[in-house]
Q: What sequence folds into this?
């Protein structure tokens, strides 16, 4: 909402010098002043110049070529105005000027003669209505001075960012009222002096409301014998001051009253209304309508239409129709001033995609009692400025009266909510300053009737907000709540997520956050099977781009795109992770399943070449090591990695992918990205990933830690090397040892794998180290030898293995 | 008597000086100061001297013993240092063997900072779904369908009744349905709005706060948020509360801080106003309480919400919000 101080000054005395403190004060009562500009800023490149000499234009009879002194130099200007003469002082627009009616002035040639500027008329500059010739300036003006400075032109304009609850401020008077409350002055409302001594209007027209729920009130007046012409300059000036372009007197008057009072009006060409009457009804199914902007709309029965005797003539409260608009030949108009139900207007304007000054106000709620004032104001201006004759009488159909609400306000409750100590009189004065009616009731109570334009005030708490904002939020004492010293455990996942992030960062992985939306085609890029549940994606009905059209069902596409972006910037060794949700659809009308996942990705080298070692590449076992230690840190035991069956994970390389189990529960995977997937993401280097489901692993996390005694007796370590089938997973050997449950075995691990040379083909040798320790004594060699032999025998037998020769 | 104490002393010093390795110093030390050493022997024989000389010679011999002890130690240390350097000297200016710590995303770091401050004040953490029903995101928060307030947030729709949550305020009603007052929670998380430019991304992060109990006042809201801002920025940060509008709070407030870039002089970041909007807040609207069956005559509540990216941008001097989600390592490694 734009307001100019010059216009405000019509209703309330404004000290132009203190505009910035007025702006601050408005912001602090809730009308945020977004920007402060001067409406004459567009005159910045208009200079006072003097015509030095005038020559005829060699190629055009009606044009002249002038040398114009603009202070610091002399420029050549081509001009066609009849009133120019040598020594004349006039405004010169320099290239780059944007004129109020739109065009941008550029340096150029006119009929082959250079023109470095333009001599301007009053009308061209938006400073008057005279367009007959170049504007004549006083001879005493300083040549080269800016025109705005020379003529002392300045009018500050506030752009106010209004919240949707304050439609009453969508008008100059509305803003003036707030300033009046701040400055504790009173506002001077415009006066109308219409005297209806008869009701002649009903001889000419009638109004029928068939949809009172959508149109509780509709009023109209008639003005005949109108002469359509440009508005007088003062009216044009008012409109231009808030950025509206003047059109003709009738349209300008409806716009002027709209801006002044906030009440949208519409002027119909009375002679284009069939039967000369108005019917307010809902649209018929299949009906179409062409609005003022020449667009055709298909109507539905929930839309409210203003109709004449046979057809719709306006989209109620939103936009008028082509078939009834005021034209140059119009002589008789019907002025509409109505109250339409906000929800109805909003539904229609949203459905049709039209947002007009009018719909903007109706959908927020106009003043139901301001309708007649606005109508009278417009009618009077039309009869004066359009030289028309007002038909006496008014039609005011008010079928559903909107009653003023009386709200009881308790002083104690107010102070308790706000943390203040206002007394009755302070509250009364604050509310009265914005035209609320206040009566005392009982000891601690007030009965408040808000003015009809404050459609946002519905209950006691709304009044409390008024009191708070008018007294100033910053004047309310700052206090601290007294609350019980009680705390609740956060959800398990919250702690787990933060632990995971810290651990991963400790491992040298950097956290990324990718968008939750992905391209629909990402599932194809991952080669997901048609039955994969990750194909059940949540579609966004109104995505910004194709790349962000569905909610992700995997963290992998985002990570692959991220490494692609980094590699393109020459960062080729990356260790990244993300903790975030994936979204699996459960049908369009249900909330999806949101599953929180962690995924890590590793590509490039594990360690760069340096002065003490060569570059170390990365492979599957680097990513596996990360997962192992991650789970280890979370104290999740009994983890098993087994080969992912072929085709079970389509986006990783077969034979190079592990599925991860805790006991028998699948908790995630780790593996190398499938070469085809690399190509799909335009990656030229391989990458290793892991994925874990937080919901699942959180179940295995124990809240308690029990400390164990540190062993007192020494341990003995023994190695076993066995030769087994190459295809046998080495973990099977370890499982056998574990199954033994031998209590003297403290731990065991695989420390070497060897193939080739001395080992037969299709075989490999595996070396394990077992550490033995007793809690109660120092072990003897023969005790350990006995157990160790047992284990060796068992392994040999179980896997048809042999010992190295 | 063969040698005087002075002769022994001089000879010992001479020998220390000419000793070239640690072993010979040790041998010398035993030869002079050991149990059967020269000095020990000398001291033992003092009783053979005339009575009047014994005291002076004895004292002198003890002084010599102390001096020699010191001299041996010094010589030993000097030789030790020399021998450690002799093997080889390293180039300490060569780069160290790399250890890499990863980086936490700046949004995670700022979220943690925000949560930590608010947890100290007494809030518990709560979370909720990101794909949310129209009911929890709008209706229950007093934002009916066809209300102009819906225009304040550009919403991504999944269906007529399902949206991507536009704010973490959607958690409020879910939490209040579960708990009876006192309620005090904060809810960090992702939110979505269809908007994209230098200062908007379609996904961003918010932290929501909600406190409901008997006697919670607007003054308390000011107190909590003042404390919060003084912690997340610094104690000198000036702030102001100004009236605003959110359908689910009444009174509603916008909290501005003095621009951290220009300290209030006016710059591009603060649109030349000198102030930055940082938190939306207010007292819980009674209509919201009515939706969850709380007694509006007994309980009042305060609520607030803030954008994590905005705070991160101000704290770190980041001018383009999209950088947070490009995940360029050169960006992430700065935090």
A:
């Amino acid at each position: 909402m734009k307001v100019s101080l010059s216009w405000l000054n019509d209703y309330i005395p404004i000290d132009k010098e203190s505009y910035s403190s007025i702006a601050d004060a408005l912001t602090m009562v809730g009308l945020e002043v977004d920007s402060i500009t001067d409406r004459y800023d567009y005159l910045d490149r208009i200079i006072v110049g003097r015509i030095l000499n005038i020559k005829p234009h060699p190629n055009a009879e009606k044009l002249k070529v002038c040398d114009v002194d603009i202070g610091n130099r002399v420029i050549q200007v081509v001009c066609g105005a009849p009133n120019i003469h040598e020594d004349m002082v006039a405004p010169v627009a320099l290239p780059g000027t944007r004129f109020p009616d739109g065009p941008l002035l550029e340096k150029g040639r006119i009929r082959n003669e250079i023109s470095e500027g333009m001599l301007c008329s009053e009308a061209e500059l938006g400073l008057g209505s005279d367009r007959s010739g170049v504007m004549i300036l006083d001879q005493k003006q300083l040549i080269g001075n800016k025109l705005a400075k020379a003529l002392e032109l300045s009018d500050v304009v506030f752009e106010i960012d209004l919240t949707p609850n304050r439609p009453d401020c969508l008008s100059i008077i509305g803003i003036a009222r707030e300033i009046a409350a701040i400055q504790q002055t009173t506002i001077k409302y415009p006066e109308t002096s219409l005297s209806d001594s008869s009701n002649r209007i009903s001889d000419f027209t009638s109004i029928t409301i068939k949809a009172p729920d959508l149109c509780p009130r509709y009023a109209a007046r008639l003005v005949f014998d109108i002469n359509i012409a440009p508005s007088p300059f003062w009216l044009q000036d008012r409109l231009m001051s808030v950025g509206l372009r003047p059109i003709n007197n009738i349209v300008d008057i409806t716009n002027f009253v709209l801006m002044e009072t906030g009440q949208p009006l519409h002027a119909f060409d009375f002679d284009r209304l069939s039967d000369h009457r108005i019917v307010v009804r809902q649209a018929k199914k299949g009906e179409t309508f062409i609005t003022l902007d020449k667009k055709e709309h298909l109507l539905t029965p929930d839309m409210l239409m203003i109709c004449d005797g046979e057809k719709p003539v306006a989209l109620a409260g939103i936009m008028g129709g082509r078939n009834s608009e005021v034209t140059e030949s119009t002589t008789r108009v019907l002025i509409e001033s109505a109250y339409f139900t906000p929800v109805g207007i909003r539904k229609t304007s949203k459905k049709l995609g039209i947002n007009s000054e009018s719909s903007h106000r109706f959908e927020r709620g106009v003043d139901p009692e301001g309708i007649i004032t606005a109508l009278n104001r417009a009618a009077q201006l039309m009869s004066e400025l359009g030289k028309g004759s007002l038909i006496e009488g008014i039609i005011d159909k008010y079928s559903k009266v909107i009653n003023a609400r009386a709200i009881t306000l308790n002083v104690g409750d107010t102070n308790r909510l706000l943390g203040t100590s206002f007394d009755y009189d302070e509250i009364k004065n604050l509310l009265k300053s914005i035209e609320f009616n206040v009566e005392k009731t009982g000891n601690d109570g007030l009965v408040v009737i808000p003015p009809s334009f404050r459609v946002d005030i519905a209950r006691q708490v709304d009044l409390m907000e008024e009191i708070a904002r008018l007294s100033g939020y910053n004047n309310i004492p700052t206090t601290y709540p007294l609350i019980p010293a009680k705390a609740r455990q956060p959800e398990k996942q919250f702690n787990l997520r933060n632990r995971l992030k810290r651990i991963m960062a400790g491992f040298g992985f950097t956290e990324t956050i990718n968008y939750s939306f992905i391209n629909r085609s990402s599932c194809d890029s991952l080669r997901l099977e048609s039955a994969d549940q990750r194909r059940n994606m949540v579609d966004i009905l109104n995505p910004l781009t194709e790349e962000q059209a569905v909610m992700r069902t995997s963290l992998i596409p985002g990570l692959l795109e991220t490494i692609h972006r980094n590699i393109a910037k020459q960062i080729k060794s990356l260790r990244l992770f993300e903790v975030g949700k994936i979204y699996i659809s459960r049908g369009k009308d249900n909330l999806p399943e949101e599953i929180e996942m962690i995924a890590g990705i590793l590509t490039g080298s594990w360690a760069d070449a340096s002065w003490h070692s060569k570059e170390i590449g990365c492979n599957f076992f680097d990513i596996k090591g990360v997962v192992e230690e991650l789970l280890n840190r979370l104290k999740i035991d009994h983890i098993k990695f087994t080969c992912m069956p072929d085709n079970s994970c389509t986006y990783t390389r077969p034979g190079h992918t592990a599925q991860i189990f805790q006991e028998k529960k699948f908790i995630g995977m780790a593996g190398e990205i499938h070469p085809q997937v690399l190509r799909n993401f335009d990656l030229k280097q391989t990458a290793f990933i892991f994925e874990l489901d937080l919901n699942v692993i959180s179940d295995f996390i124990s809240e308690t830690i029990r400390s164990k005694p540190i062993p007192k007796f020494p341990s003995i370590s023994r190695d076993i090397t066995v030769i087994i089938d190459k295809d046998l997973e080495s973990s099977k050997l370890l499982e056998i040892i574990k199954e033994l449950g031998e209590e003297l075995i403290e731990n065991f691990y695989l420390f070497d794998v060897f193939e080739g040379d001395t080992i037969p083909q299709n075989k490999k040798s595996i070396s394990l180290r077992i550490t033995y320790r007793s809690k109660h004594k120092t072990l003897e060699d023969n005790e350990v030898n006995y157990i160790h032999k047992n284990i060796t025998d068992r392994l040999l037998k179980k896997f048809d293995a042999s010992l190295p020769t | 008597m063969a040698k005087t104490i002075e002769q022994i002393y001089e000879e010992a010093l001479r020998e220390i000086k000419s000793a070239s390795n640690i072993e010979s110093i040790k041998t010398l030390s035993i030869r002079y100061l050991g149990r059967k050493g020269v000095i020990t022997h000398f001291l033992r024989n003092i009783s053979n001297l005339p009575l009047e000389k014994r005291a002076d010679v004895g004292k002198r011999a003890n002084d010599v013993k102390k001096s020699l002890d010191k001299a041996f130690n010094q010589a030993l240390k000097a030789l030790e240092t020399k021998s450690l350097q002799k093997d080889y000297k390293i180039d300490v200016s060569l780069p160290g063997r790399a250890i890499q710590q990863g980086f936490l995303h700046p949004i995670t770091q700022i979220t943690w900072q925000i949560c930590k401050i608010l947890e100290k004040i007494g809030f518990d953490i709560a979370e909720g779904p990101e794909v949310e029903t129209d009911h929890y995101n709008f209706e229950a928060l007093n934002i009916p369908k066809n209300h102009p307030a819906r225009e304040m947030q550009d919403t991504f729709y999944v269906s007529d009744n399902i949206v991507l949550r536009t704010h973490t305020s959607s958690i409020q009603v879910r939490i209040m349905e579960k708990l009876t007052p006192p309620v005090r929670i904060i809810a960090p998380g992702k939110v979505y709005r269809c908007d994209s430019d230098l200062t908007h991304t379609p996904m961003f992060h918010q932290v929501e706060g909600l406190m409901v109990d008997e006697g919670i006042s607007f003054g308390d809201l000011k107190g909590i948020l003042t404390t919060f801002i003084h912690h997340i920025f610094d104690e000198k940060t000036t702030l102001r509360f100004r009236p605003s509008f959110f359908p689910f709070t009444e009174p509603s407030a916008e909290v501005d801080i003095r621009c951290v870039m220009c300290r209030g002089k006016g710059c591009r970041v603060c649109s030349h106003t000198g102030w930055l909007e940082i938190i939306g807040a207010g007292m819980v609207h009674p209509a919201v309480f009515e939706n969850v069956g709380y007694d509006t005559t007994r309980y009042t509540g305060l609520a607030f919400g803030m954008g994590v990216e905005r705070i991160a941008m101000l704290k770190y001097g980041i001018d383009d919000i999209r950088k947070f989600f490009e995940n360029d390592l050169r960006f992430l490694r700065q935090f």
Notes: Chain B touches chain A through 82 residues (CB under 8 Å). Chain B is about 40% helix and 20% strand.
